[in-house]
Write a structure and sequence with these properties.
The protein is globular. The chain has a single domain, classed as Thiol Ester Dehydrase, Chain A, CATH 3.10.129. The protein has about 160 residues and is of the alpha+beta class. It has three helices and six strands; from the N terminus they run ααββαββββ. Strands 1-2-4-5-6-3 form a six-stranded antiparallel β-sheet. The relative contact order is 0.22.
């Protein structure tokens, strides 16, 4: 994995996460983004909502919700390289291995390989018992352009 000379600081990653967490999109979805260490993105739903359930019975979390969480987790891995550069998810491949049940889920993603433009990442979603229920690989495109908001993403 080729990374830049200087990795982002914990403060830069926190500002990036704060930008996402302040957005109406993440607030309405009930998900929180974090960087527990310099190599990991976490997206957490602490309390799964009734409208997020469906599929394989009313208690399982809907696959569309899981796909959205993977998009967020994989899509934010470029911040581990440079949180000031714009980026976008361009491909996801998801494996649903077991139903996600319970009231909490956590997605964790890491960089598998990073070039100048493309970044390859992998992620998994665990349930409240820390059982791996789904895995994902994805690709993100990184731009040379800075985020419109300056230091990090400015999202609604």
């Amino acid at each position: 994995m080729s990374l830049p000379r200087a990795r982002p600081t914990a403060e830069q990653l926190q500002r990036y996460a704060d930008s996402f967490n302040a957005s109406a999109t993440l607030k309405n979805f009930g998900v929180k983004l974090s960087f527990p260490d310099a190599d990991t993105v976490e997206a957490t739903i602490e309390e799964v909502r009734p409208e997020q359930r469906g599929g394989l019975g009313a208690d399982a979390i809907n696959g569309g919700v899981l796909a959205a969480i993977f998009d967020l987790a994989i899509g934010c891995t470029p911040a581990l390289v440079d949180p000031t550069r714009r980026s976008a998810t361009v491909q996801l491949s998801i494996n649903f291995m077991r139903a996600v049940r319970g009231s909490k889920l956590v997605a964790r993603s890491k960089i598998d390989r990073a070039g100048d433009v493309l970044l390859f990442a992998s992620a998994q979603i665990v349930d409240e018992k820390s059982v791996v229920c789904a895995t994902c690989t994805g690709m993100c495109r990184m731009s040379d352009l800075p985020w419109a908001g300056g230091d990090g993403p400015a999202i609604n």
